[in-house]
């Protein structure tokens, strides 16, 4: 795998992130095909002779697209997931969904980290993590995707990378709501910090490494998504803080805010593994219209006080 050149790459997903990755890879001189329509996938044009397939499909559509692409994928093609989320029905991480459809012998890697699509597309310096169970696959993706403005750090911690990428969107909705309420600078700082602790607890319970959450796919992505002006999930939170109903907010959005779906899935995953997720639980109530963001903040502040450092 490490010696295979990924000259021909297919990108599944014509949204902002899929398009940005396609632009980046084309800029590197790769032969890139960007799939954004059912017809192109059925004909096999998008996948013909691809050495690498990048999946940038929203989490709720990943299984269906990968299932339909299964018979068209070249046998040795590496699949790189660029999706941040969880499958609501099964609570599987996206790489697990892909493996479920393609088999455990397929080389799979995951890209995740602080990376707004628009900035990558214009060549702004960006660093992300690339995770995979096979060192050779990870090394190949590092080599073939890197550029003077795009740097990739390797890890084998698929769990930590994917949980960090999924959960940061939940915390970002909360951060946007707090920002909208005008509660000062102390509150969002505390929220981000405790949000990281919450993400780390869940990742650790699932077999991930806490150290991973201190890196690009954890803290890095969390800070960017909670504070960046281009963050869709932060924007949802801001509008919730203004008192707008979720249906109205989502109805006016052109892109997917993964955190909305991830909130309930993460809460269910935490329940399955006995992990307390207080911020996620409060956001689930806010998204369901059962309480206001201000009440959610008050309830978080009045929770039983505890040690900051958790003993495992």
From TrEMBL:
Keywords: NAD, Oxidoreductase. It catalyses: sn-glycerol 3-phosphate + NAD(+) = dihydroxyacetone phosphate + NADH + H(+). Residues 157-297 form the Glycerol-3-phosphate dehydrogenase NAD-dependent C-terminal domain. The active site is at residue 168. The lineage of its organism: Eukaryota, Metazoa, Porifera, Demospongiae, Heteroscleromorpha. Residues 9-39, 45-136 form the Glycerol-3-phosphate dehydrogenase NAD-dependent N-terminal domain. GO terms for biological process: carbohydrate metabolic process; glycerol-3-phosphate catabolic process. Belongs to the NAD-dependent glycerol-3-phosphate dehydrogenase family. It comes from the Eukaryota. One of its GO terms (molecular function) is NAD binding. Its EC number is 1.1.1.8. InterPro entries: 6-PGluconate_DH-like_C_sf, 6PGD_dom2, G3P_DH_NAD-dep, G3P_DH_NAD-dep_C, G3P_DH_NAD-dep_N, NAD(P)-bd_dom_sf. Gene3D superfamilies: N-(1-d-carboxylethyl)-l-norvaline Dehydrogenase, domain 2, NAD(P)-binding Rossmann-like Domain. Substrate binds at residues 84, 232-233. One of its GO terms (cellular component) is cytosol. NAD(+) binds at residues 13-18, 117, 232. This is glycerol-3-phosphate dehydrogenase (NAD(+)). Signal peptide: none annotated. Pfam families: NAD_Gly3P_dh_C (PF07479), NAD_Gly3P_dh_N (PF01210).
